[in-house]
Task: inverse folding
């Protein structure tokens, strides 16, 4: 029998050690196999998930491109998924833990009210479906310009796109978290000027994507009809 080269023996030994170490110690959390990441049928990332991150997380001083606290920039799809998302596994995903089970300084958003149960549930379903960009629901347009009541259209819109920053009167730009505050902004003209990005106004949502034409029409119709608490 030929004598084995000591170098080869060493290489084989090193490989065996590496394989054993991977097997016994490094325990990677479960992720949904790529071919099963088909998304939740009701969720469109850009419409339902991104605005939650943009208005609650990608704020100045927090996780916008200029501040990137802890290296997290939560302003677009690529930046959100590359940090702490395990597709199919919300419980293991850092971002999901930070809005649900984390405590103290780690609970997000810091120094602001917790996300609504509806927002948390959307993020959970999005991760369960594979945390994909887009989604089949992007082609179903759920916005209807004939729906422009405060409770049916305006308040939910404020919750998704604005209240992350405008949750209290003491925040810059004031509150949009209750009817009378939204009505004040409607009456003084800032609401429509800001969301339609009109000259001389501050474009809102600040740093985020402009609302769709349908959403802007809903707000305009609501204001034109008297900005009622309906
Ligand atoms: C990322 C944080 C952020 C989000 C999200 C945001 N705003 Fe603002 N908003 C601000 C800040 C900061 C100001 C203060 C003025 C400035 O710095 O531009 C402000 C000011 C305002 C004002 C006061 C008038 C003015 O222009 O200064 C209104 C009205 C307003 N925002 C409406 C909205 C609406 C409506 C939305 C949602 C469609 C929204 N904002 C989303 C941060 C935000």
Result:
């Amino acid at each position: 029998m030929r004598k084995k080269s000591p170098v080869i023996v060493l290489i084989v030994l090193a490989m065996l050690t590496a394989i054993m170490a991977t097997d016994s110690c490094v325990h990677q959390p479960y992720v949904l196999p790529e071919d099963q990441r088909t998304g939740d049928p009701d969720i469109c990332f850009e419409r339902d998930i991104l605005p939650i991150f943009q208005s609650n997380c990608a704020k100045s001083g927090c996780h916008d491109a200029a501040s990137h606290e802890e290296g997290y920039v939560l302003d677009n799809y690529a930046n959100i998924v590359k940090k702490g998302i395990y597709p199919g596994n919300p419980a293991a995903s850092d971002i999901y833990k930070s809005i649900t089970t984390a405590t103290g300084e780690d609970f997000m958003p810091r120094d602001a009210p917790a996300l609504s149960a509806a927002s948390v549930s959307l993020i959970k379903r999005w991760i369960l479906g594979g945390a994909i960009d887009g989604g089949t629901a992007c082609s179903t347009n759920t916005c209807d310009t004939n729906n422009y009541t405060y409770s049916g259209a305006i308040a939910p819109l404020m919750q998704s796109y604005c209240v992350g920053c405008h949750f209290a009167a003491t925040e810059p730009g004031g509150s949009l978290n209750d009817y009378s505050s939204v009505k004040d902004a409607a009456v003084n003209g800032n609401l429509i000027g800001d969301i339609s990005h009109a000259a001389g106004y501050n474009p809102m949502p600040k740093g985020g994507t402009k609302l769709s034409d349908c959403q802007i029409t809903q707000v305009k119709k609501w204001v034109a009809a008297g900005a009622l608490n309906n």
Summary: The CA atoms of residues 37 and 130 lie 4 Å apart.
